[in-house]
Amino acid sequence: MSPTDRAFMAHALGLGRRTMGQTWPNPSVGCVIVREGRVVGRGWTAPGGRPHAEPQALAQAGEAARGATAYVTLEPCAHHGLTPPCTDALIAAGVARVVAPFPDSDPRVFGRGFAALRAAGVAVETGVMAEEAGRDHVGFLTRVRMGRPHVTLKLAASLDGRIATATGESQWITGTGARAYVHAARAQSDAVMVGAGTVRADDPSLTARGMGVSRQPVRVVVSRLIDLPLMGQLARTARDVPVWLCHGPDAPSETRRAWQGLGAKLLPCRLSGRQLDPGSVLDALGQAGLTRIFCEGGGALAATLMQADLVDEFMGFTAGVALGAEGRPSLGALGIDRLAEAHRFALIETRAVGGDILHRWVRAD
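Structure tokens predicted for Riboflavin biosynthesis protein RibD (365 residues):
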């Protein structure tokens, strides 16, 4: 990998991040067209998933695309969907070389885009910044490979691991810097997910504020009986920002009708004992098109996801305050008797954010 290829691919990845969280079920792809060392076209997946990055970059490049190199952050699509294949557009524009990190895992595309380009005489190089691209496309790749969204669990806790006082007061344990970071993380996620207890206790809006996004994340509530306030913020704004309710088969029909009348989308899920099965919840969200879930708890939902080994990334904020044993724990009971039974995560980042500490972890396996 040449330094030049790496630099232009880094530019393309940066473009793709501009609409991360706004393009589901499509990946957020970036594309840079370069001719004789000069960028002649740039594009990224538009909110809603279309148009794709490549045709936008090619339109900007015009005739300058002929003989140029296209840096694309994922294999160009090769199938006819709502739009023609991007491989056809690249070939028709006369691009001489395509650089990409890896094949698209979608079985409709996998390797076919590269094969079509090579068959047309276009040079193809892969493996450029594959690790970085993998992190950016992790939600799309998880949904394609596993049928469910990638899940990031966020917890903001005191030094002793509490998320609220004994009376339930939790605003605000962390400072303004951490809260701004969380809003940015929401903006880059397809959906923000919480449990019913969090909605009843905090009446949250769950929107990404101050980020200038054109498409707010879906607000997902996991609630077996949909026992949620019909006059709360989510109910009042369900027609403006999507609200999806994952519920059980025993949710009262009148409650379902009330929420549907408010504009909410209902997703029926299976039960596991007396709780919603977390795998069924994520499968339903994946089938509905979501690729990246930012879960903000509370403790019961967080514990359920941890027990089911469905947390892919953990984002924690630790504040310089102690609440004591009477405070509410950040995680509900996990039923762990031996340390060997606990799920392990690998640290990928730690730094100060304002007066708090951010630590990010991913699956150790």
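Residues 3-16 form the longest helix (14 residues).
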